[in-house]
Amino acid sequence: MLKTDNLTERRLRMAIWQKADLNEWLVLLSQQAKEKAEWRYWAAKEEKNEAKRKVDFESLAKERGFYAMLAAQQLGIVYQIPMLEVPELTQAQLELYANQLARIQELRELGQFDQARKIWIDWIKNIKPEAGENTPTKIQLALIKYAKDKNWYDWRWKVQFKQKPLIILICDYRMPIRIGSIYICKIKKSAKRLLRRLLVKKVRGMLRLNRTLMREG
Question: What is the pTM of this model?
């Protein structure tokens, strides 16, 4: 009996490919693995109790991601990507980062855009967490919003977040933002294209995995 999650997940994907029963493998997953969106989706699909099945899909559809979109499809509703609130820099943060922001502004006024951009990228990539709920991601988003508000639109940089990939909807940002492997730019017009890219990437990954499993089997 396979108890290691990665092996069990491989068997699950093989069962999905073969359209076989998944329950015998789903029960072998650890609690942590069962909480993944992927396996919550498939567990809901396998659920015989219609009421519980609907509740599980509704819960998943409120989240952000590929399987949340599929859950909405199962419910026959339009998937609405949850908006992520973009924070403002607090007065304390403005004071904390005053030197960096002033230096970047100075370089821009001198026309030294490449150097200003390099300082910005190096700085924002290495943001450290602050006290309370100010995670690096929240601080990075607040700084990006600050840059937008300062009309620094001529910068075409990519920001690499260290956290897991997220789809972040920041309307009216003209700067391409890289989050994991996803680029966000003028999101209102490109949301459908982003979702299509995610879907294609996910399907291709599953097909590659299934081909590998078939060869090993």
Answer: 0.49
